[in-house]
Design goal:
Layout: E1 7-10, E2 19-25, H1 29-36, E3 45-53, E4 56-65, E5 76-82, H2 85-97, E6 101-102, H3 107-114, H4 120-131, H5 135-145, H6 148-172, H7 183-202, E7 205-206, H8 207-210, E8 215-220, H9 226-234, E9 252-258, E10 261-267, H10 280-295, E11 298-304, E12 320-324, E13 340-341, H11 350-361, E14 372-373, H12 375-394, H13 400-418, H14 424-431
Parallel strand pairs: 1-6, 7-14, 8-10, 8-11, 11-12, 12-13
Antiparallel strand pairs: 1-2, 2-5, 3-4, 4-5, 9-10
The protein binds guanosine-5'-triphosphate (GTP) and magnesium ion.
The site of magnesium ion (MG) has 6 residues, from α9.
């Protein structure tokens, strides 16, 4: 990426809006802005101005930022124009004729990173916010942007740097019998850093998991009330319900909102225990059901409360049992102890059921306080831990050169997370996930 030129882009979201934002950043940003807005103040400012370009006079809010006090760290100007795409395109065309180049996706944030305004985890936070689906991802992205991961890693890196410096000092004084760091002390320090990294991994969530919608499949005999349950939780008539056994044939699903997120609730054909399929359709129906059951994250056994037969069995254990049609309950002993008793007719058990599904589907998610790590973070932490383990194993040995090498490699991997040492291809990979104008 070349930072010598001045870039511009539309940085408001796509589609009609009351205001549209054109961003300009780089060494010539101010000069270009002055050519259409001669009274732009020399200091940081936010004012309404009359802009003159392409024989037009347009009243717009103009935000002037002075290097290094801007998002990118460069001279920056933002034009907040009336929401008119033609106007915006005329302005962009004008700026291009003045020498501005259209920004690539993520280029504003990349410049912020190169100018030391953001570390790499925070830059990823910006990308994650732009791409967030739903509240949980947004929350995790905000944590990244707030620098929480960096805040946890930096003290560990400082401790590691200190140990490395002491070891390297010994290498420099190899001819003299000095020890700057007693070996048991070194070992303790390395073990402590390893413990902290291990804790960071085990107490964090995975970013990738946040966007995964847990699949929950309803399994039971024909007529048990599975489709009714699907409709009841989805809040609309997704599936056909009838008193005839064998109503559902295809695999159906609906998105169901639970307090911690949404799940993909799957309804399949009712299954009998040991019945051989009578027709081609039935064989297919079973095969589809079997696959949906195997692919689900959770399986719920749905059984009519008065059904005296033993529950059906499938190739996996059930995570939850739901007894349906509680309004038809003949004797109180009908329900199994750890089953959730519901009635779609009277509304009984709905909160219980939602609570149980929520716990199962989002267990281990651990609320908002836990940090979310992406694949790249986890991989770098694991590699750093491998090198630290190697180093800890050598702590007692004589060859401190090799030990220093391992410590340096560990530090390097942690540094990559923050972008302290970042190969170009890694940077390209991260910033290309942005959209233009960010
Ligand atoms: N009284 C009562 N009837 C219910 C309740 N839930 C479902 N039913 C009835 O039970 C019958 C079967 O319901 P479905 O939801 O179609 O059952 P299913 O398990 O999807 O059946 P298949 O698709 O054939 O496997 C329908 O007539 C429903 O109206 C309930 O809570 N109370
Ligand atoms: Mg059904």
């Amino acid at each position: 990426m070349n930072n010598d030129d001045t870039i511009c882009a539309i940085s408001s979201s796509a589609g009609p809006a009351a205001r549209m934002i054109v961003r300009l950043s780089g060494p010539a940003a101010r000069a270009m802005a002055l050519s259409i807005c001669p009274d732009l103040p020399a200091q940081v400012s936010a004012r309404r101005h009359r802009l003159h370009f392409c024989d037009l006079e347009v009243v717009a809010w103009v935000y002037g930022f002075v290097s290094p006090r801007s998002y990118t760290g460069e001279e920056m100007v933002e034009f907040h124009l009336p929401g008119n795409m033609t106007l915006v395109q005329l302005l962009i065309g004008y700026l291009q004729r003045q020498g501005a180049r259209m920004a690539e996706p993520g280029e504003f944030t990349a410049r912020a990173y190169f100018n030391g305004r953001l570390d790499l985890t925070r830059a990823e936070g910006v990308a994650a916010i732009i791409n967030a689906h739903g509240e949980r991802e947004l929350q995790a992205a905000r944590q990244l942007l707030a620098g929480e991961l960096a805040g946890r890693l930096r003290p560990m890196m400082d401790r590691l740097t200190e140990a490395l410096a002491l070891i390297e000092a010994e290498i420099d004084f190899v001819d003299e019998p000095v020890t700057f760091l007693a070996r048991p002390d070194l070992r303790r320090r390395l073990d402590a850093i390893l413990d902290d990294l291990r804790n960071l991994l085990s107490n964090s969530r995975r970013f990738e998991r946040l966007s995964h919608q847990p699949r929950v499949v309803l399994v039971g005999r024909p007529n048990a009330g599975k489709s009714t349950l699907l409709n009841w939780l989805a809040g609309h008539d997704r599936a056909i319900v009838s008193p005839l056994a064998g109503t559902t044939r295809d695999v159906l699903w609906a998105e169901v909102m639970l307090p911690a997120g949404s799940i993909h609730l799957v309804d399949v054909a009712g299954l009998e225990m040991d019945e051989s399929p009578e027709s081609v359709v039935e064989a297919q129906m079973r095969e589809h059901a079997r696959r949906a059951i195997a692919e689900a994250d959770l399986a719920v056994l749905v059984q009519e409360v008065n059904d005296p037969r033993p529950p059906i069995q499938v190739d996996r254990p059930f995570d939850l049992r739901v007894d349906t049609k509680a309004d038809l309950l003949k004797a109180p002993a009908g329900s199994v102890e750890d089953a959730i008793l519901i009635s779609a007719k009277t509304g009984l058990g709905r909160d219980n059921l939602i609570g149980a599904l929520n716990r199962l589907a989002f267990a281990g998610d651990g609320g908002e306080a836990r940090l979310a790590l992406n694949q790249r973070h986890v991989q770098s932490i694991e590699r750093a831990m491998d090198h630290l383990q190697q180093a800890a194993g050598m702590a007692e040995s004589e060859s401190i050169e090799l030990l220093a090498l391992e410590l340096r490699a560990a530090l390097d991997h942690l540094g990559r997370i923050l972008g302290v040492v970042s190969p170009d291809e890694l940077l390209g990979e991260i910033f290309s996930r942005f959209c233009i104008g960010k």
